[in-house]
Design goal:
By secondary structure, the protein is an alpha+beta fold. It has seven helices and 17 strands. The strands form four sheets. It has an eight-stranded mixed sheet with strand order 2-3-12-9-14-7-6-4. α2 crosses α5 and α3 crosses α5. The longest helix has 30 residues. The chain starts with a helix and ends in a 6-residue tail after the last strand.
Length: about 375
């Protein structure tokens, strides 16, 4: 899928992202159910263009109340502001469910609390961030509760962090609805891009939606602390990586996100667009399209050194809310029929979604940390 992390890490050039590289897509025309057909075609065309380029785009008029997003930021900041001995009570003691801090140590990689390192070959320390993970909330009697990526959430105490659980679950409901809306547009975009340029090839009978009846989802709130080491030595808020799964939906309160432009061999700053959410596709969506849709390397840079202020957001605290929207654990991801073109090889073998995520998360969580 293009250049690897090692080549991207060696690049020091940073530029502003052009407006055409990350289009801003108005979703108001597809928010209703069923969506307006003409609006759906237009949005799908914009998504297709973005995914053939960088796999990143921004969405506006997405239907999520800005006040709700601000409440999520507020509740997560309250947790991060708490003394270490308080927030550590809610450590990520099970897979992707709870708090993790900078420099935490894990005895069993991701199967306990630990420090994530998304680019271990190039980063000297783990990611310079703390966060709180929330798996998909399931009823106590649900037979899938307790399985990988569906562990019981480690919610902070209500008396110390009032309405945090309710706020997060409200947001999950809304952002999951947005994910399903986007999925409809992606299905249309994939039908359009697959097959012959004159669109004479019929659409695939397989839909993406059928794989999201029992999705694996995770809400992650993050605080990026200022890094005190040089970027070229691997001191990063979030190391260079591509996302492992299908789609990420991001809210951010400041700049710092950068994506790698392999065509011009440079890092590009993703702008902070008030009111917009940033969408990017992951490796599994790229596999569905035989690599036509791009899963792009990206990172977070948040430095203190004034001489490097142009590569981050000036060294202040940065917060983000990311929702990972993934198909069911047992979904077998393989190249969809519209992308199996005559005379062209299928680049990727079938892959079970849950096993893939388990392997990737396990590799990214360090057992020990030298961070301070």
């Amino acid at each position: 899928m293009g250049l690897g992390n090692k080549e991207a890490h060696a690049v020091t050039k940073v530029a502003d992202l052009s407006e055409t590289a990350i289009p801003i897509i108005d979703l108001s025309g597809i928010a209703s159910s069923p969506p307006d057909p003409d609006a759906l075609t237009h949005v799908a065309s914009q998504i297709r263009s973005a995914c053939l380029n960088t796999g990143f785009f921004a969405v506006t008029r997405h239907g999520i109340d800005p006040a709700l997003i601000e409440r999520v930021f507020s509740k997560s900041k309250a947790l991060f502001d708490a003394p270490k001995e308080v927030k550590s009570r809610y450590r990520n003691s099970t897979q992707m469910a709870g708090y993790f801090g900078i420099g935490d140590v894990s005895k069993s990689a991701w199967n306990g609390y630990g420090q994530e390192n998304l680019d271990p070959d190039n980063q000297r320390t783990g990611d310079f961030k703390e966060g709180f993970d929330m798996s998909r909330e399931l009823p106590a009697d649900d037979p899938n509760r307790g399985k990988p990526f569906r562990k019981e959430n480690n919610w902070p105490d209500e008396d110390l962090f009032p309405e945090m659980k309710a706020t997060m679950l409200e947001y999950v409901s809304e952002v999951n609805r947005l994910g399903m809306t986007l999925l409809t547009a992606f299905e249309k975009a994939m039908d359009v891009v697959g097959g012959n340029p004159d669109l004479s090839m019929p659409s695939s009978e397989e839909t993406l939606s059928q794989h999201f009846d029992e999705p694996m989802t995770m809400l992650r709130t993050l605080r990026y602390h200022p890094s005190r080491g040089p970027v070229d030595l691997g001191h990063l808020g979030c190391g260079a990586h591509t996302d492992y799964g299908c789609m990420a939906i991001l809210a951010q309160d400041s700049p710092g996100l950068q994506l790698f432009d392999q065509f011009n061999s440079q890092w590009c700053r993703v702008p902070h667009i008030p009111g917009a959410l940033i969408i990017n596709i992951g490796d599994m969506t790229s596999r569905w399209t035989n690599g036509e849709f791009k899963s792009t390397i990206h990172r977070v840079v948040n430095v203190v050194d004034d001489s490097q202020a142009d590569v981050g957001n000036g060294g202040g605290l940065r917060h983000s809310i990311v929702y990972f929207f993934e198909p069911g654990f047992d979904t077998v991801v393989e190249v969809l029929e519209p992308f199996r073109k005559k005379g062209e090889p299928v680049k990727f073998p079938p892959l079970k979604m849950g096993d893939h995520l388990k392997n990737m998360y396990s590799a990214s969580w360090k057992e020990e940390s030298s961070a301070t």
